[in-house]
Each structure stands twice: as structure tokens, then as C-alpha cells.
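Board notes (copied after class):
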Amino acid sequence: MLFLPTSLCAASSISAFVPNESGVVAEYARGHWRDVPGMKVLLLNLMPEKQVTERDIARMLRGAGPDIVLVPMKISGQTYKNTPQEHMEAFYTDFEQVEDEQWDGLIVTGAPVEHLPFEEVRYWPQLCHIMDWAENHVASTLYICWAAQAALYHRHGVRKNSLPTKNFGIYTYTAATTHPLLHGFAETLLMPVSRHTEVCVEDVRGVNALQVISDSADAGIGIVCEDNGRSVYVTGHLEYARERLGFEYRRDLAKGRPITAPANYYRDGAPEEIDFAWRDDALRFYHNWINNVIKPHTMDCERTNQQFEAVMKGCREIFVKKLHDYGTAWRIMRPESVTDQIYIKANRIRGIQVKGHAEVDEDSSGDFQAIINYSIIGLIQLELGYGEESDIAPAEATALYDKYAAEALALMKRKNHDYDEAWRAMRISSYTDLILMKVFRTKQIEELKGKTLISEGVGANYMDMLNYSVFALIKLSEQA
């Protein structure tokens, strides 16, 4: 099911426009996307006729598979010529309201600014900021047409080149069917194109990070992929509805622009008979983007989040039980003493790993749990300062514990997004060594009274030791 802001592209409107396409559309109150379960996909709509593009993208996503929540986003401070400002204010959310969150997908559309150098586009600085932001906050970003050229230029210095005549029509592209984005395709795909500029195949292939998975002898580069789908560049308009190229053709004719009929668009050259041949390829591509690129990443992250929360729940239970037995006696410990306690636990784990056995309690799970709880105690001591007695109630201590556990989870999510679950390929002995390294770093920072030149402080090291210990416990649970 596709969820849209209330009254934006109502389900009946989409169904009436293109009947017989699968998928159900539901609505959510504007600004309440967080309350709806499902993949969260942002739409940065730079096309002039926003409502048309909203409908086109909604058609692509509504039958793509799992629940998808589409959140239209805008660059704040912009005014619009072809879309009422009231529409933008009613249905679009400013980027600043979403930038602190992690997102499953981002779609950046084309824009009618091909004639301008990128740097002269009025919102270019903001767009560059969003493209940079997406690298750390979005599982996969889909750049369409001009946006694909803009992203290739900003990220890799690939320049666009003006064409002698407009590239306009439906073109046949090769399809690298082994790539997840093109799974289930034949050896070719069809895609609408409507642009005055292009990027050269040689320039794109000259960038090692980029993989061309679709191109055309007649229309050049089609689809480019980077970093296993973290960034996807589509130079055409797979999302275009049946009538769109015909509308653009008639519009340009009416304005006296030099234009020829779109290639391979009308059956036998008859304007009343449109060959909607790219429809199935377009729907399949978006299905693959959601299910073969975004969904596996989301599922891995969800699994990790659940495992992380389970580990922290177990550690919290130990913390609460010890609060019952000992109260908050640990409040008298200076941070240096907390660091030493973590050292004792980590050094014992390493000793057992090196020796190959333990005389007492061979399972190191308890030591990793202790490192987690001492790390949170250290964070609390840094916030409150150490006391001369047990000067806070257990309820306050538990609230502080929950605060830092939540911060640790949020940090893990951000880093897991950036490093793509790389920690799963590490050995438990590596976590142990990293924790000990962090202990020695912390000791040095403590000797310097916290006055570092470039390094993060003690609190950041406690967070890292906590997270490494959680990863170790997850790995131990999977080996059991």
C-alpha cells in the first residue's frame, strides 16, 4: 500500500488516470508520516508541474510491494511559477524538518533548468547540501534526468554537454539483467527521454565508482549505479505517463520551439495512437528499486535494531536489579575509576581469548554486559559529576540509563547506515581489541584533563565501547 498526505493525488484520481494498475493508495495526516508503518521515501519534486509528477511517482510506487510512505519535500524559501504556492505549503515539508532522520529512499526529479550552468541554478547550494546529506541519511537515492546529471557533476565532476537537437522520444536501452535493479528484464528496456543535454559515456565509465547498467546507441547513457544502489542515476523519465511526451510535443509546437514528433512514440506516426510500450519496464524498475535495493538494506537494519534492543534490554535488567541490591553506590566513582573497571573487564575477555580457556566463568557475555553498563554509568557521571554519596534515586538513575541507551541506539543506526553492517564481518576478538584501544585512549584524554586537539572526548569513547560490546553480544548469541 502507498501512503500519501491527505488529499494529495487521491487514490480515485490515480486509478482513473491509469486503470488496471495494481496497488492501493491510503492517506496520512500531513506531517504524521512517522505514525505510519512502512518504508519512508522522500520526494524532492523539482519539476514545474508538481501535481503531474506527484501522480507519476505515485503510480510507480503504489504497486511496488511493501507499505511505502511517500513524503513530498521542498527546498525552503523557494517560489513556484507553475504550481500554486498554497499547494506547496499544504503538502510539502521543508527539508529542515526531515534532515535529522534516517530515510529508506529519496527521489530527486528532473528540472527545467538544462540551459543553465549548474552553479547558476538558484537553489544549487541547497541541492548540493541535500545530495551530501543523502549519503549519510538515505539507503538509496534515485536521481532522475536533470537531477542525475546534477548529481554526477556534483559528486564526480561529470560534465553535461548540450545536444544539437532535443533528444525526444522512446528509446531502446541495453539492460544488465544480473544487476538487482534490472532483475527480470529482457536484454533491453524502453525509456522515455526528453532533454537538451547529455553526459558522455566515456566520462561516466572513467569514474571507477560508477557502473553503467543500461545504455543506448541512440540515446547514450541510460541508468548508472553506484555503491550497490546507494545512488542510482536515471537519465530518462521511466515514470512518465502515457500522454506526457505528446503533451510536451504540442506545448513546444504552440510556443514555436524547434521540435519534431517524439521518436518511437506514435504507432505508425499517427498522433492519436500512442504506444505505451515502456509501462511494464517502468513499473518493474521501481519494483526492483524498492524490493531489491532498499528492502534488503531495511530488513538488515531492522534485524540489527531488534538485536541491539534485545541486548540492551538484558543489560538494563541487570542494572535495575543491582540498583535494588546496591542502590546508586556507583555515584561516588570518578570517571577515571569507571574507565578502569571497563579495562578490567575488557582485559579479562582478551586474556581468555588469548589463552583459549578460563578457570572461572568461561562465557564472556557477562563481561561485555558489564562494559555496557559501566559505559552508561560513565556517561551519567560525565553529565552529573561524581558524588560523595548515593545522591540520586534509582528512578532517576534508570531514566538516565534509558536516555543514554536510546542515544547509543541512534548512533548505531547512523553508523550502520554509513558502513553497511560491516561490523558483522568482524571477529569478537576485534571488538575486544577495539574496546581496549578505546580504554587507553580514554585514559590519555583523562590525563590531559579532556583538552584534546582533534579527538572526540571521553563520552564518545564510552559510546563506542558500549556499541562494540553490543555487537559482540549479538555475535555470541548467533553462535550459541
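Comment from the instructor: The longest strand covers residues 160-174. The CA atoms of residues 38 and 67 lie 5 Å apart.
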